From TrEMBL:
Cited Gene3D superfamilies: Tetracycline Repressor, domain 2
UniProt domain HTH tetR-type: residue ranges: 6-66
Annotated keywords: DNA-binding, Transcription, Transcription regulation
NCBIfam families (alphabetical): ScbR_bind_reg (NF041196)
Protein name in UniProt: TetR family transcriptional regulator
GO MF annotation list: DNA-binding transcription factor activity; transcription cis-regulatory region binding
Record-annotated DNA-binding residue ranges: 29-48
InterPro entries: ArpA-like, CprB_TetR_C, DNA-bd_HTH_TetR-type_CS, Homeodomain-like_sf, HTH-type_TetR-like_transc_reg, HTH_TetR, Tet_transcr_reg_TetR-rel_C_sf
Record carries keyword Transcription: yes
Domain of life: Bacteria
Length: 214
């Protein structure tokens, strides 16, 4: 029974992510979400009292994916800057293909300014970058004349660029190539030469786009 309930909840969150990504928060209806999830509205209300609560669940799912990915990369023992680079490449994949992450970005914008605090996926990404940059500083990888806040601002700009490019319909191979080039520039600005030497700015193999034919 519990497993069935968890599957139903996951279907609802997935359906909500698709509709929030496609139509935005205001236009997505609970009726359409329950229909796409293949469950009754009664089942939807059993799990979520309101559309606001369902939207928060979508944003939390995007945050969990980010957190779990960073933890997995950290376990591989890479330098903090490499972990950060690979995390941004994962974000580039998700921004192009994953409705949950795309919706998390969009919901953070569309729900801001209301009477309830909401998750802002950009700020979550920025905080994650800040933690990894703090580790990079401890590893001696950042230049002494560069503050962690300044470096985090540069990374936040790249993340915003990733989302904007994906939202405009740019193909993922193009986004990945631009992201790699951006990292080349950013690393020259923030990282010590010895730390840059062994860093890879292209996507890791798991996230490497297929070559474009022609």
């Amino acid at each position: 029974m519990q497993q069935r309930s968890e599957r139903t909840r996951a279907r609802l969150v997935g359906a909500a992510g698709e509709l929030f990504d496609r139509h935005g928060y205001a236009q997505a209806s609970l009726g359409d979400i329950s229909r796409i999830a293949g469950v009754s509205k009664g089942a939807l209300y059993f799990h979520f009292e309101s559309k606001q609560e369902l939207a928060t669940a979508v944003q939390e799912a995007g945050c969990r994916l980010l957190e779990e990915t960073v933890l997995a990369l950290c376990r591989e023992g890479r330098p903090a800057l490499q972990t950060l680079i690979d995390t941004t490449h994962a974000l580039a994949v998700w921004a192009s293909t994953d409705p949950i992450v795309r919706a998390a970005f969009r919901l953070g914008r569309e729900r801001a300014g209301g009477d309830r605090p909401v998750l802002n996926y950009h700020l979550v990404c920025s905080a994650t970058a800040g933690r990894l940059l703090g580790r990079a500083a401890e590893e001696g990888a950042l230049r002494p004349d560069v503050t962690e806040d300044a470096a985090r601002t540069l990374v936040a700009g790249m993340v915003a660029g990733i989302e904007a490019a994906a939202w405009s319909g740019a193909p993922h191979p193009e986004i990945a190539a631009q992201l790699g080039q951006s990292w080349e520039l950013v690393l020259r600005a923030i990282a010590e030469e010895h730390a840059r030497r062994d860093l890879r700015t292209a996507p890791p193999a798991a996230h490497r786009p297929e070559p474009v034919a022609g």
